Amino acid sequence: MKRLAAFGFGLAALALAPSAVRAESTFSDTTCVQATAPVRAYFDKTKDPSTTLEDAVAYAQKVVDAYDQCAAEKRERGEIETLQYAHLSAARYDYVIGGWQHLGGNDGLARTALQAAVKLAQDIIDWHPDSQLWYASNDVNIGSGSWHNSYANGVSKYHQEAIEVRDAALKSIGLLDKPAAPAPAPTGK
Length: 189
Prior knowledge:
Layout: H1 19-23, H2 36-47, H3 53-77, H4 80-103, H5 107-126, E1 134-135, E2 146-147, H6 159-175
Helix pairs in contact: 2-3, 3-4, 4-5, 4-6, 5-6
């Protein structure tokens, strides 16, 4: 059983977490309310030097699960911006899980978590708003119920943060143990 204190808790993954989250466990998420308790519990656990690596991973996974639940709710309501927020938050914690798994020598599990972070972040990076007006009036009273997307630059407001998470996860994947190369064939001399 590995304790977090053995790793010094210098995980660079926390640099990708919002500063309010890094600062203290009194964190409150008003966008994804169901994530508040898991985030607080995760930070409380990781501050405790007797916490095992397995517990840290389990608590981080609870955070990912909460943000996944939030994302599902936001998707159902068509709330794209908050859906992307939930996905970005989940990606950050997938990245954290990948870091913990790697520190514990579980590179296969680390790779899985990091790939999940890359996928979520890449979905945000690739997203572009509709370029046309959308009419809530079924085209009967065009203009009275119109809505125009607010993404003036044509990308998600989380675009840059998603790039940072994706790039960090890809870099971490590159640092994982690679499968051993096959031994060279005998030369026959």
